[in-house]
Amino acid sequence: MSTDRYQRGLDRMMELVSTDHVNTFDHVKLVESYKSLDADLSDYIVSFAFGDIYSRNGLTPMPRS
């Protein structure tokens, strides 16, 4: 599935990945692994959670301690 929501979700997901962990954890591979559970699950997670929820204008990143 390639929609604006999905692409916005992928972009936001990559923004949230700590630069310290870029080479040790691949969020895209994790989301793709959900396809073994259900063909649409990974699209739903990226589109809804990251594309709709985490991309809201009013949200600001919290500092990590």
What do you see in this structure?
The protein is an all-alpha fold and 65 residues long. The chain contains 3 helices and no strands. Helix 1 packs across helix 3. The chain starts with a helix and ends in a 12-residue tail after the last helix. The relative contact order is 0.23.
Q: What's the total number of strands?
A: 0
Strand content: under 5%
**Low-confidence runs:** none
Overall mean pLDDT: 80
**Residue share in helix:** 40-55%
Report the end-to-end length measured between terminal Cα atoms.
36 Å
Number of distinct helices: 3
H-E string: HHH
Largest sheet: none
Assembly type of the chains comes to single chain
Which structural class best describes the helix and strand composition? Answer: mainly alpha
Radius of gyration: 12 Å
Shape assignment: flat
